[in-house]
Amino acid sequence: MVNETVQALTIAGTDSGGGAGVMADIKTMQERHVFSAAVVVAVTAQNTIGVQDFMAMPKKMIDEQFASIADDLKIRACKTGMLADVPTVEAVVKNLKKYDLGPLTVDPVMIAKGGARLLSEDAISTVREKLLPLADILTPNLPEAEELAGMKINDHDQMIQAAKKLQSMGVKNVLIKGGHQVESKESSDFILLENGNSFWVSSPRVDTKRTHGTGDTLSSCITAELAKGSDVETAIRTGKKYVQATIANGIQVGHGHGPLNHWAKIDKEGDD
Ligand SMILES: Nc1ncnc2c1ncn2[C@@H]1O[C@H](COP(=O)(O)OP(=O)(O)O)[C@@H](O)[C@H]1O
Ligand SMILES: Cc1ncc(COP(=O)(O)O)c(N)n1
């Protein structure tokens, strides 16, 4: 019997502009040499300027996509991205409980870089109460961490406090992304692991507005590495290196928050 190719799954919304959501996830996993499947839970009409419209998928179609994948593929790790509204979050939670899809990374996407709401306000408590307990890794950006932890985050100490609070809500590993701390010269993310260890991953802040899909790219790289069998810390360090390379080696697409260069290369995985 030949060795099965490593397979991972993204559960998210599409981006017609190609920069974020399912499109960023598939490009990232492909670059990391992991085969990617996708459960599309919402479709957006979107470009680098903003989100013009979106539609959540009928729940029956969400169930059917999960069933098709589970019937045939062997998914080693999965992630969630945009989840739109309460019924969609509930449908995803139901299917995550039904099937074994490996470790789950939850990127709790709420508001796009352009300002559009991608998760309805009333769905935040559903994510907190029903999805977070299933997560092996949670990767909020600063506004998302504030919302989920119910506290303001103005500095590094408060990032640490928020991570502890989120872990106390049942998440095993928490990664709070510092990309929104624009006044800082470094873009630093804080990680609190299940075993209580913690560390920062930092990289020089690239002075660019071409950062559409950074969060999706980081979380899907982490998911791809977990699918290959990496431990959580190595997967996160590789994810940070990869997202930095995709931002620093920019491409020119669109007129707003441009997409990343997913074919940018990193020399080495994990830590230096
Ligand atoms: N201008 C930038 N330069 C370097 N790294 C960045 C920059 N903006 C974001 N990052 C990094 O990209 C990743 C995603 O962060 P963030 O932009 O906060 O997430 P999101 O896309 O969910 O809002 C993090 O590792 C963050 O440190
Ligand atoms: C379908 C979809 N999923 C996620 C994002 C978040 O990406 P960003 O915060 O970079 O706009 C997005 N804009 N669209």
TrEMBL record:
Catalytic activity reported: 4-amino-2-methyl-5-(phosphooxymethyl)pyrimidine + ATP = 4-amino-2-methyl-5-(diphosphooxymethyl)pyrimidine + ADP; 4-amino-5-hydroxymethyl-2-methylpyrimidine + ATP = 4-amino-2-methyl-5-(phosphooxymethyl)pyrimidine + ADP + H(+)
InterPro entries noted in UniProt: HMP/HMP-P_kinase_dom, PM/HMP-P_kinase-1, Ribokinase-like
Keyword Kinase: yes
Claim: Kinase is one of the keywords in the record: yes
GO molecular function list: ATP binding; hydroxymethylpyrimidine kinase activity; phosphomethylpyrimidine kinase activity
Key words of the record: ATP-binding, Kinase, Nucleotide-binding, Thiamine biosynthesis, Transferase
Catalytic EC class: transferase
Domain Pyridoxamine kinase/Phosphomethylpyrimidine kinase stretches: 15-261
GO BP annotations listed: thiamine biosynthetic process
Pathway the protein acts in: Cofactor biosynthesis; thiamine diphosphate biosynthesis; 4-amino-2-methyl-5-diphosphomethylpyrimidine from 5-amino-1-(5-phospho-D-ribosyl)imidazole: step 3/3; Cofactor biosynthesis; thiamine diphosphate biosynthesis; 4-amino-2-methyl-5-diphosphomethylpyrimidine from 5-amino-1-(5-phospho-D-ribosyl)imidazole: step 2/3
One Gene Ontology CC term in the entry: cytosol
Enzyme Commission numbers on file: 2.7.1.49, 2.7.4.7
Stored Pfam families: Phos_pyr_kin
Signal sequence, start to end: none
Protein family per UniProt: Belongs to the ThiD family.
Record's protein name: Hydroxymethylpyrimidine/phosphomethylpyrimidine kinase
Organism: Lentilactobacillus hilgardii (strain ATCC 8290 / DSM 20176 / CCUG 30140 / JCM 1155 / KCTC 3500 / NBRC 15886 / NCIMB 8040 / NRRL B-1843 / 9)
Species lineage: Bacteria, Bacillati, Bacillota, Bacilli, Lactobacillales
